[in-house]
Structure formats: C-alpha cells, structure tokens
Amino acid sequence: MKDIQEKLDRKDIAGFQHDLIDWYEKEQRTLPWRENQDPYRVWVSEVMLQQTRVDTVIPYFNRFMEQFPTVKDLALADEEKVMKAWEGLGYYSRVRNLQAAVKEVYESYEGVVPDTKEQFSKLKGVGPYTSGAVLSIAYNKPYPAVDGNVMRVISRILSIWDDIAKPKTRNIFEFAVDQLISREKPSEFNQGLMELGALICTPTSPACLICPVNMHCSALEEGVQHELPVKSKKKKPTAKSMAAAVLFDDAGNLYIHKRPSTGLLANLWEFPNLETIKGRKTEKEQLMDFLKEEAGVQAELGDLEGTIQHVFTHLIWNISVFFGRVTSVSDDTMLKKVTTEEFEAYALPVSHQKIWKMALEEPSRI
DNA sequence: AACCCGGGGCC
DNA sequence: GGCCCAGGGTT
After folding, report:
1. Based on CB atoms within 10 Å of each CB, which residue in A88, A98, A152, A248 is the most buried?
2. What residue is closest to B7 (Cα–C1')?
3. Domains (ranges, CATH) in chain A?
C-alpha cells in the first residue's frame, strides 16, 4: 500500500476531483434512477446493475418501480410476482436477497433505508460496493464504491498493475478511492468515476483524447492505457447434455417444475428435464424413464423437436426438446399442472423461455 | 482464495 | 468465440 500512497502523494487530488465532477455534472446521462435521491430507488438500481449493463437494466427498473414503488410495496409483495419482475435479468439470488433485505428495513427500520455503513452493510445482498454506492449517492456519504468500472479507471489514473481478478486487489482500490474521493460531493465523484468508465475510459479503446481527466492520468502519460487493467483469465465453461419435455394433457394443461431454492436458477420454473448420458438408452428413453420414475407422470413422447443451446458463465446447456401428451399423473408428482394462461405468471429462465418459444412455433404438435 | 451464480452485447 | 459488465454469497 506504500507505493500507492506515494503515487497519491504526487497527484493533484483537488484538480482531479474538480475536473471529474465538473465533467460529470455536465455530461451525465439521464437515467431513471437519477430522477431523485430516493435511497430505495438507488438501492434497487445498484442491485440490478450488478454485472448487468445500463441499457439492459432500464426497462426492468421502470417496470419494477411501477410494481413495487416503495420499501413497503416490495416488502409485502408476493414472491412469485417479484421473481417474475426479475425474469431474464439473471443472477436471481440478487432479487431474493433484495426482498429479504427490504423486509428487514420495513420491519426493523420503519421502512427507512439505514444511512450508516454499519447498519446498511448487514443487509442481505449488500456488499462493499453496494453499501458504498447507495450511501454516497443517496445520502452523500464519502465512502468508496469500487466496481469493475472504477478499478479500470483508477488502475489507469494511478498506473496500478495488480490483477483486478484477485479479490484482495479491491482493497488497494478502496484505499486509493478513499483518499481521492471528494468530501463535498462524494455522490458526484463516485458516479463520475463510473460514468467515466462507461463512456470514456472503456475497456479496449479508451477515448483519452477527450477524457476530462487525461492530464491526471499516469497510464496515458506512460503510454500504457491499453495494457491496463491487468486481469487474469477465467476458465472456459463446460458443456452438459440435457433433455426436456413440454407436456400437455388432453384438457390443455401444462406440467412444469419448480427448481430448488438453492443453486443454479434457484426458485425458477422449468419444463421437466434431466441431464442425459451417452450410452445404450436414447435421450427419449432416458427422458421417458425420468418422467415416470422421478417426475411422477406417464407420457407419450413425440420425436425430437429440436435443440436449444444456452450459454452460462461457467456452463453450457445443450437441450434436446420433446413434446408429449400426459396420460396419467401419480399423487406424488413433482410437477405442477397449470393452464396456459396461468403459465404466463411463472418466472422461467431464458433457456426454458426458448423451449416455450419452440412450442409456440409448432402449435400443431402439441 | 476459489468457486458459484445469468444473460446480453460488443469486438 | 472471448470478454465485459454499477458484485455478493458460500465453502
């Protein structure tokens, strides 16, 4: 940390703050969560923005705020409705934790989002970034909010060569931002850093020529802006073969399954499916056995309708899709029978939305 | 410290 | 196809 301190000692911190904040106040984008400083709105936006781009978040944020405009609304909302509002955003534990935390605020803080680091950081799903971001933006408290954007910007400003993929590296950047941050306008400072990372100091082609803080940038001075930040590579995803069944009965009902409350895609709904293995049995036979022995339904399956590929960060699903007609259901089935109308209210992962889209394109088959 | 947890858009 | 994104929780 000593070398970082020496770099900071050589910086014109007041000038950097001024140039950054001045630029941010002029050039900031109009975004729905910037309409006011309502801590609940800021909080929801920060959770949605975790690992998710601004353009993706905007429509979700607007719909979410229409449905759950206050802490009380979200605290008392039906969990399935909340999941449905998050459908397609990914990282679904974010919204499960958010609702749990908002319930805590409703019950223990009279619905007022706490304004101290100690209290706010204890809430579910609130880590060092989110607590710093919400407390600075909504309550104007001078805490660092170090995300990927900020690590990229600061690694260039100070010419820091530590691997930002390593967890402990974030401490170096929190130390640096803690010394750089404006005590007068911490909200504008933090948002300015992130805005700069999004608009100017981008990963592969930083626009240094028009950067408002280019005269403060060590990487530019050294000509190494394209080499920073240093980030080690992640391993490639592994592939899994799956088979899934879109099942109807003669009354037109669908049969769906709720995923477990932990792990991948927790609490979301899906068409019954299993991981298939190469061997003597065909995929269709494995799926038939699974439906009968595990899922608790007997069904006649058609031929392979098609395949879906879905890529996660660490995983690839190759799903063979079959359509089928349910002939009998056991009492202890793990499937839920729903009408096609009711089906619309259940939150499905995108992979299974793709399967449903296949079914809608072949209505004669089902 | 390493791994898990989604999805989309850009190059 | 690889990389990145306004990260946090679990082990």
Report:
1. A98
2. A90
3. 2-222 (1.10.340.30), 238-365 (3.90.79.10)
